[in-house]
Amino acid sequence: MQKFQFRLETLLKYRRMQEEQAQVKFAQATQRLLAEQTVLSDLQAKLETNHALMRQRQQEASLTVEQFLIIQRYEELLKDRIVIQTREVQKAEIQRNQCLEILTGCMQKRKLVEKLKERRWSQYQSEILQEKQKYLDEIGVQTFVREETGW
Q1: CA 35 vs CA 22, 38, 42: distances in Å
Q2: Mean pLDDT of the chain
Q3: Which cellular components does GO assign to this protein (predicted)?
Q4: Radius of gyration of the chain (CA)
């Protein structure tokens, strides 16, 4: 009997390689999303700090008009940057979701070929078993014939 050989082994290797590449891209997209979310959190924290500073200065009554205008402009700048950064986070989420869909598709394609390989392996095993059984049956018949005929 021939050694087991899966005709689609090259395709299986290719699908595994595609899946690995998709995993790398998904990991990169996830890292980008986390980085963008961190930037957004930092901006929101700065905005909160700015609010707290303005409240503190108002309570102390040490806030001049110039300081108020500077704090107000800084707050507007932060709000604009938060809007822009929110869009960046949304883009990163979309990119990550697309990478996840690609990865899921690659995994399904690889699993399909692996199932075909498993079926072919089972078929090969049963063929080997049948050949062994045939061989043993033949030996048994020859032994019986020898004993009966006296050869």
Answers
A1: 20, 5, 11
A2: 93
A3: bacterial-type flagellum; plasma membrane
A4: 35
| Domain spans in the chain, listed from the N-terminal domain onward | 9-114
How many Cβ atoms from other residues are within 10 Å of residue 137's Cβ? 10
Q: Cα(28)–Cα(15) distance, rounded to whole angstroms?
A: 20
Give Cα 43 distance to the centre of its chain: 29
Tell me the residue length of the chain. Answer: 151
Distance CA 100, CA 94 (A): 10
C-alpha to C-alpha distance for 35 and 18, rounded to whole angstroms: 26
pTM: 0.77
Dihedral sign computed on CA atoms, order 127, 133, 135, 141? negative
State pLDDT tens for residues 67-113.
889 989 999 999 999 999 999 999 999 999 999 999 999 999 999 99
In sequence order, which ranges of the chain are alpha helices (DSSP H)? 9-60, 65-149
CA-nearest of 53, 61, 56, 59 to 78 is 53
DSSP 8-state secondary structure symbol assigned to residue 62:
-
